[in-house]
Amino acid sequence: MRIYFGLLILLIGFQACQSQQIKEENSSVLPGELNRISVFNVADARQFYTWTSDRVPLVSAHRGGPYPGFPENAIETFENVLKYTPAIIELDVAMTKDSVLVLMHDDELDRTTNGTGKVNEVSYEYIQSLFLEDMDGDLTEFKVPTLEQALLWAKGKALLTVDIKRSVPFEEVVKIIDKTGAESYAALISYTFPAAKKLHSLAPELMLSVTIRNGEEIKRFEETGIPWDRVIAFTGLAERTREFNNQLHQNGAFTILGVLGNLDRSAISRGDEIYVSFVQNGADILATDRPIEAAAAIRGLIPNQSSKSSYFEYAN
Description:
316 residues; alpha/beta; TIM Barrel; Glycerophosphoryl diester phosphodiesterase; GP_PDE_dom; glycerophosphodiester phosphodiesterase activity; PLC-like_Pdiesterase_TIM-brl
């Protein structure tokens, strides 16, 4: 039975070393028993991502949140994360030789599948024949999804941030988002202001994740003409000052702190309480390779009541 609990997240307690236990526990969770974020129109998306003092801190699962047995950029991996916490799912999009958009981080297939070759030099038919490998190199039974499959899966379940690989035309990604009606829950990642401007010109209704790491970059962003209510501010891979985060909040923008890499490793060595300090310092979303652990650490910071509460549905 699924019910709303305001903003009380029911998460399974665990330690960082219990990745295998996580996998085993998931096998007993009934299909469909997921924590969800449901945003169904672009006006709701803007309201959700507009910063307020009662905002709900979230995790963003880098490359979908891979764990042992769950490879990166797989729909099954996305669902594994949602069994523990509502989440933003960050995914990577590449394009095959025959112009099919698939989820893949690397230019080549060798690291994450049992295939070989470059994604843009092979056909989708070939990619369909492959299986994904997890981060330990173990073969799984999971297939490489298309972007369209991922977008259709996410509706009513999760918010997405879409990382577009260099060889992929922005227009093709926007076309698939339009085809699937995913405008409200799929935000596009841009690493440069010219890229952000182009994406905004192609799809002015979409949310954009834009890198803004200092005061100079705030100024450069404002020069793009993109409204603040279309931006989620990625503040980089190093913790920013509370004053800087407050500047972004004053413009109504959520902040995403990339804790993947050094900051995640600090949490492993120093304890997951470090994630709490990032949120208390003004990070609204933690982009992490450890979404389950990070979400468990920050669950105590969820406000008892929030203007965002209607967007969340928690597994019982």
